[in-house]
Amino acid sequence: MRIMDTVHKKNGRLHIYVRQDKYKGELKSHNWVGRIYIDGKQKIVSSGTTELEKATIILEKWYDDLHLKREQSNNIPKKEDSIHKKEEETEINDQNKSNNIPPTRGLKLGMFEKLKNIKLSKKSFGQATAEPKNPGEVSKNNGIKKILGKFFKAKFSKMSVATEEIVGIDITREAVRVAQVSKDKDNKWILDKFSYRLFDQEKVGENLIEHKDYLSEEITLALANAKITTKNVAISIPVTSAIIRVVTSPLMSEEELKKAVETESLWENLVQLTDNLNDYSVFHQVINRNSKSNTMDILFVASKLSDINSFSSIVKKSNLNPVIMDVRCFTLKNAFDNVSHQSTTKAHSAIMEFGVDANYLMIIHNNIPIITDVFLRPQEKQSLIQSSEAQITPEGESVIRRYAMQIKQAVNEYETKYESKIHTINVVSSLKNIKKLLSLFTKNLPNTGFKIFDPLSSVSIPAYNKEKTNIINRSTITSVMGLAFRKLDVFGYYKFVTAVKNINLLPNRDAVRQQNKIKFLSGFALKGLAGTIAGIYLILIGLSFFQINSNKEKLITFDQVQGEFDRVNSRYSKLLKQKNEMQAALTLGEKINSNQVQSYRALAQITRSVPVRVQFTKIEFDGLQNINIEGSAFSDQDILNFIGNLNAKSLIEQASLVSMNVPTSDAEQSTSNKKGFIILCKLKDV
Questions:
Q1: Closest CA to 326 of 386, 396, 244
Q2: Total domains, the chain
Q3: Would residue 51 count as lying in a domain?
Q4: Mean pLDDT across the chain, nearest whole number?
Q5: Residue 139 has what pLDDT?
């Protein structure tokens, strides 16, 4: 279905156009139809007339009535939607009956009917169900969140692609080429690793996919020759195995588009596929939005799952992990974009692949690819191969003449439509006589320049890769360079700014992105932990540095402080000793009840009996006649002298040695020569 002559009313909110749906090759209706978006839903109604003025009046009244009903029935939206849906179906089917067209129930619905039936709640658009108290503040907060989210997503995307290693592998009929690139500190590309292997044409035959074992062996040898250890690879499929179209759709938000894709209603109406959609792997991306015409351009790329699985299985046999599946024409564009520095050249440029397998012209207009296939019959391809560099056969000249006519027609159509001139066409070809053939193109199209594209023109090549890349026709390595430039954006930021460079037809691409996202976040968390620990150590080192400087200042007066400390400590030790002696005397005094005369006198006699070399540690009185004395002496004789002195006292009946402690270990003997004792004194009865 296409929209023709769209008229915008009600400040651009009401779109009036003629439906172009066909039934059995004829238009279902020539009537003007109105379309609006309300509450996130699309609504369509037929005016019932082919006259624009009458239709405008009818459709504007429908628009006003619809909004009036919406305001009056704001609390019952489900009932309102049901009423409008019945009204639309009734009006359209009534009009179809008037034009002798069968009801649409048994037919495939048009795109707009399917899109309008997509139920998108307000929650799916991040809106609250209740009316916010301050819409301006909420809008401001949402805007800030959106900006911050976009900023952090961009940062994470840049970090993830910067740490990622991917090797590009290009498989053609002639050879397999592998390449891996990186960027220097000036953000310029470096061809780190590169190698290629020419195929034995007798082993590959007409169909490459049928010789997977041989191809995988050659890939393994090429990787080993280039010393590539990375397992993640980006590969491509031929243009002939892909469906590439830029389709125009009504303007939708990302949520609406996602819902339309999930229901498969979008591609059934925009893209007419001969096979079941489930048999294809589809990649899509919005590449242009036009709010004035309320439309958007979508890049649609699809390939059969069988073809994708066949190419994936080739690299898997080499124990590699395919993470990106691109289309060859876009790998050429990717290489062109990365080596072309002039924005005007990139905005309006042309790339032509010319050879035995693929022939097409791709014009890039504001990053939108316009691809024109060039048809060559098998005998014409054979004529190109048979033509040598020295002499081009008449049949070869005829082929180039017809080829140039198709190129001229495509260029003229583009220049007429977009009013933009194509001055030079960049040619990618593996034909050995390409230089001679290009001279014939220039002869047939004198106003258009043809040059062999060099994908290494602005790429730094290390000395060890000079010999491998020192070839006359460097355009043969364009595709592998375009694949090597690819990065797997696991956070999905670059798909909004570089749609054509972000194509990935792998059916499991979401799982691959999720797996790599987890891997990156794990590594990022580990680096964050290591950075945190390093930061803590740096802080501690800084604090230690300041502490050392502070201590150095304090150490200047250390000798003076130490001398003062020694003097004070000496006085303290003497006072402490006196305190301990006084405390011991008080403790001994507490053991004897001073109000008993005999006990007091006996204690006095015991005290006077103590020799100089004897010390008390404990005295216990049982309150009757027995006093236990614990202490220490320097020798046995001192203890005997003490016992003798006690027995000589008038109040002591008998003093005897109960026990004596002698130091046993060498450590005890070295630290103290005293001997402990316990003496029992029995007092006399008075």
A1: 244
A2: 4
A3: yes
A4: 78
A5: 53
Domain-embedded: residue 384: yes
Give the span between the Cα atoms of 373 and 360, in whole angstroms.
4
**Percent with pLDDT over 90 in the chain:** 23
pTM: 0.56
Predicted local confidence at residue 593, as pLDDT:
53
DSSP 586-650: HHHHHHS-TT-HHHHHHHHHHHHT--TTEEEEEEEE-SSSEEEEEEEESSHHHHHHHHHHHHTST
Residue 128 has pLDDT above 50, yes or no: no
Q: Give me the CATH number covering residue 401.
A: 3.30.420.40
CATH classification at residue 286: 3.30.420.380
Q: What does residue 285 show for φ and ψ, rounded to 5 degrees?
A: -160, 135
Q: 11 Cβ partners below 8 Å, 6+ apart?
A: none
From the list 207, 216, 179, the residue with the least C-alpha distance to 195 is 179
Q: Do 394 and 259 belong to one domain?
A: no
**Residues 321 and 378 grouped into a single domain:** no
Beta bridge mates, 361:
352, 372
Does position 63 have pLDDT exceeding 90, yes or no? no
Residue-number span of the structural domain to which 39 is assigned: 4-121
How far is 433 from 197, CA to CA, in rounded Å? Answer: 21
Same domain, 229 and 359: no
**pLDDT of res. 490:** 46
User: If you count DSSP H runs as helices and E runs as strands, how many of each does the chain have, helices first?
Assistant: 21, 23
pLDDT of residue 588: 60
Listed residue (466, 469, 393, 390) closest to 432, CA to CA: 390
